Amino acid sequence: MDLIKFGRRLRVYEIGTLIAELENLLKKKVDISIYDRSPPSLRYEAMKGIRIYVKEINEFVEDYVMSINEWLDFKLAWERMARSYLYHLRELWKERKD
Q1: pTM of the full predicted structure?
Q2: Average pLDDT over residues 18-33
Q3: Which of 10, 35, 52, 87 could form a disulfide with 14 if both were Cys (CB 3.0 to 4.6 A apart)?
């Protein structure tokens, strides 16, 4: 089947899966060495920010039907967003260090 149907709301399990997928993308494809050495409070802020993005994405995909290709494009957009977010996070961390 080449369509994925999203219901009125993503279930908690699905949100957790999306968070896990994004976290895996961050670990595999983004240089997060600075992020790994950052203070725990900054790591918490990063995860909080990712969860806010998940909430926004949840609202975006309500009642939306995507083909597999659209879903893959969507996941790539997530990766770009995560890289951008971590870039800004690194800049914030550098400012706090100085």
Answers
A1: 0.34
A2: 54
A3: 10
Query: CA-CA distance, 89 to 41, in Å (whole number)?
Result: 12
Please check whether residue 21 is in contact with residue 84, taking contact to mean a CB–CB distance below 8 angstroms: no
Instruction: Report the candidate in 87, 95, 18, 26 with the shortest Cα–Cα distance to residue 59.
Output: 18
Task: Mention every residue, 6+ apart, whose C-beta is less than 8 A from residue 49.
Answer: 85, 89
Using only C-alpha atoms, the chain has a radius of gyration, in whole angstroms, of 15
List the chain domain ranges.
3-97
Distance CA 96, CA 98 (A): 6
